[in-house]
Amino acid sequence: MDRPRVWQFFLLLSMASAETTEVREAMVQFMQKLSPQNIQREPNFGWNLSSDPCADKWKGVTCYVDSPRIKKIVLNEENLTGLFDAASLCVSRALLVLSLNSNNIVGMLPEEISACSLLTHVYLSGNNFAGDLPGSLSNLSDLKRFDVSRNGFYGVIPDMSRISGLLTFRAENNRLTGGIPQFDFSKIQDFNVSYNNLSGEIPDVKGRFNETSFLGNPGLCGKPTSNTCTQKKNTGKTLQDYLMYSGYAVIGLLIFCLIGFKLIMKCKSKQKDDVPTKDSQTGMVISPSSESKSIGGGNRSEFSITSVDSGKDSSLTVLHSPVSEGLKFEDLLRAPAILIGRGKHGSLYKVTLSEGVILAVKRIKGWDVSKDEFTKRMEAIDQVKHPNVLPVIAFYCSRKEKLLVYEFQEIGNLFKLLHAGPEKGEQFNWESRLDIAAKIADALAFMHERLQTVGIPHGNLKSSNILLNKEMEPLICEYGLAVINNQADSHLAQIERSDQDNDFPIVNERNNIFKADVYNFGVILLELLTGELVPDNGYDLAAWVDSAIREEWTKEVFEKSLVSEGANAERMVNLLQVALECISSSAETRPSMREVAHLVNSIEEYEEKSKSSDR
Fold first, then answer.
1. What global pTM score does this model have?
2. Is residue 226 part of a domain?
3. Is 229 part of any domain?
4. How many domains does the chain contain in total?
5. Among 139, 274, 506, 528, which is 20 to 30 Å from 18 by CA?
6. Contact 528, 571 (CB under 8 A)
7. Is the dihedral of CA 557, 558, 564, 570 positive or negative?
8. 3-state secondary structure of 110
9. Could you read off the pLDDT of 552-576 as tens digits, one per residue?
10. Which residues constitute the domain of residue 268?
């Protein structure tokens, strides 16, 4: 070895030694921020200042063969629960691969991630990250695989088109908004942005990806989805265009001023003339009152409803209930009512009577069923009472309008409990979910058996139709509000609906109309186990669960809060198997609700025995 080469060799060796010391200190800080309290630290776990990441083989760390520098960090499913310290991590500038899948890491992905300039593989799937994806990701020019699926990221997808070698981009099951950037789809092999809130036209994917890569984004349009883009992009504006738009702006300003003037005049005269207007369909007079908050969080108008119809159709059928005792149609309609929900065919009001009794009134339109048929249906359902089925306490029926009266439940519904933002499921543990599943199954089996002869299933079972009373007991509501179409030629027992706001879907079932309820109960079980939102009629969630099982990563299916609390994995898998039997594509192979109830109750009994023995 000649002299210059010897000098270079010893210089590189001294630099490597110095960098390793710096990296070791930074890595220890990185791990401390991740708060690995529950990690079982074996004697050779490492990640401390008294050992070396390469020489002592820290857990999850792989180094280069010919250099004491960190090449890979792989710490999947290690119950890491803290923050991601990119500034410390990227002190190791030689890092190529980072994989932290299926932990509970929280907080944001910092902009400093770009300092790991040699990164080629980043896997952060299945954590609790939130915030925007950093724009600095576009500076990772060597990046090949990037997976941040199943987190809580929001904001827009950064423009990563400058990364010419990108092969994988997965960001499904987040809360991302905006459009899809112009990736180089001629090279990307794996791409998925399903179940976000993306919108706009999908770029040309070169025929490499189908609709499954974009599901659950109603605002997206264009190929490969079936949604047609109605608005075309403006490729350029001339001076004439700008003058035209300026004219529109001036006209708009004048109209705005005119409307403002009229509103001021109207407000001045309102105290003298505030006469409600008559609803031609119901004979109700509806007048605007104070602003109130709707269930969905937006502002809705509060309505004061009074009856002006004294005809024969303005009669309220009051059923047997302590709440409905003495209830009259006129009292109901004159009571102040707040609109708390609106669906495709009807609206839901919170009505407060003068005695302080609070009712929920479902006002429905467009259900073409005769008064006689409707009355028979309501009376048949009223004769079958179960403590976990919310009864109708009164109803009204005319040719165009129908009202259903229930006792109002302040707590809300199962959907809200499962999906109420960042704290979803925080107070909703495994035992509570299993108990609710068992009670819903028992109630539904009971209703099916008693209403089998008259052919009345629930018809629209979903988590938003499972209310919770003050004792957190589940109450199935809106039982029997579905039109049964026995003529339909459908091979699946499902509820056909165009969207989630279709209140009165048509149940298509060739042989057994009750098997549609079994399918939808299976979807509710999947919601309870996964904590995931159900898109459309549940098929996509079911397909995701099925693929997870086939690929032998069943654990990925369950909601992280259930896994972290130590819920029994065997019983969760057992309940998952029940759900999969319920959502079988063949209605004939699905079990009856009584069989389902028996299976779910057996799982709950084993759970209770296990808890008792532990005590």
1. 0.50
2. no
3. no
4. 4
5. 139
6. no
7. negative
8. coil
9. 555 667 888 888 788 888 888 889 8
10. 237-274
